[in-house]
């Protein structure tokens, strides 16, 4: 039986959220029309929906962590959120070798870290070397971006040459991410755990002034900052004097604090929160996350999921529109492929994922999986039953999977829900101790498919070699031409579904509640927040 929407919405609201709602809003804050020219000064009070895991940009992975850590670190490049183009930041120009193995960056002169030391080519080398030293367990994204890293050479004080043993065409976009943001040597020299204490030194527009794990973080404006990204809306220093991040896990408390004026902006404004926010003169900003949508990565070595026919039959078994309409509401998007629709090189696979339970049942019948007395299919005495391991990193996860469970049961599949904590989730991911694993990955580049599905990446499907897929993943790394690379990534997207490695559900998105006086809160290309241009009217 399908639950009424209001019941599921209440269940969603009770969870600790990390991300929510999709592109129906603008990318700037404020809701009261023209607020006049930006006013410098003031403190932005921001309510996070979950505690940041670590203050180190290199070790950041969750959105709430990146919202904080991104503000203290600059990157070599930036990515235009409207066009996807790579633009200058700390690097003013760059060259990429035809074989995509060598990347040479000319750095801006006069940039300093917040400890007073100068940005040099050595800083680039030390940052990338330190990321490799952190390792994949601590810096999974950064290490994946540096696949086949040979080293960085300081050609001169402001010229850094980064070399790889194999082609790595995705690396230029990777240099725009916070995970490869450039840090001072005083931070790069520290071991992984010590880098999580809130004293990281970057060249960014803000600096850490306090860090209370699981509670709060405070940033202060960096005086003299004048080397912002070409994507930023103004030059010089940030407008805000301070940003105070407070962890407020309960959605209703966050919304009430925003409406009552105790907070100026909040994460994860749920659909039912919007009326209260708007009644207080605020609004909700939203945008889709690029990368892989939420879905089940199917462990092809376990139970019935060893049968490729079973995995493929699951694709038309889900009514993804119902997942959105029943659990999340009209501001969300349902998954239409193995990449989210906001990702460069996205391929629309909605026809392949169209809801067709009769097709799913016929495929299972043909594969010899026949309904038993309780409606669950069996074959050679084995029940068509498997579990999905998930954590509460997104407010809607449990409700979405409960409805997925009901939909799969209608075709004779028994899905069991395995809710685990964050640390348990990581442990299971590392050992591949699950039947299927539910999650997503955010990145504004189709190479996220390599991170998720390659034999040398996370490979949460625990697959063996698939020559056509492996070849396409390798070739896209060796292709600088965007059109040719997009064709290869289209092949990858098709093969991921052809081989039944992934069961997409809904697209991840961000929804930020802002007060009427909070202006120009902006999303960067990967749908994370950028506070450099943010300002407060009437403070």
Brief overview, please?
The protein has 539 residues and is α+β, with helices and mostly antiparallel strands. Helix 1 crosses helix 10 (320-328) and helix 9 runs antiparallel to helix 11 (357-366).
Count of beta strands:
25
Query: What kind of sheet is the major sheet?
Result: 7 strands, mixed
SSE class: alpha+beta
Strand order of the largest sheet: 8-9-10-1-11-21-12
Mean pLDDT: 91
Distance between the amino and carboxyl termini: 51 Å
Shape: globular
Number of separate helices: 16
Over the alpha carbons, how many angstroms does the gyration radius reach? 23 Å
Show unreliable segments.
1-28
Strand fraction band? 15-25%
Q: Percent range for helical residues?
A: 25-40%
SSE map:
Layout: H1 5-13, E1 43-48, H2 63-69, E2 77-79, E3 86-88, E4 91-96, E5 102-107, H3 121-134, H4 140-145, E6 149-156, E7 159-164, H5 171-174, H6 185-188, E8 206-212, E9 216-221, E10 242-247, H7 251-259, E11 265-266, H8 274-279, E12 283-288, E13 291-298, H9 308-314, H10 320-328, H11 357-366, E14 370-371, E15 377-379, E16 382-383, E17 385-390, H12 397-409, E18 414-419, H13 422-431, E19 436-442, H14 448-453, H15 467-477, H16 482-498, E20 502-504, E21 509-514, E22 518-519, E23 522-523, E24 529-530, E25 535-536
Parallel strand pairs: 1-10, 1-11, 17-18, 17-19
Antiparallel strand pairs: 2-3, 4-5, 5-7, 6-7, 8-9, 9-10, 11-21, 12-21, 13-19, 13-20, 14-15, 15-16, 22-25, 23-24
Helix pairs in contact: 1-10, 9-11, 15-16
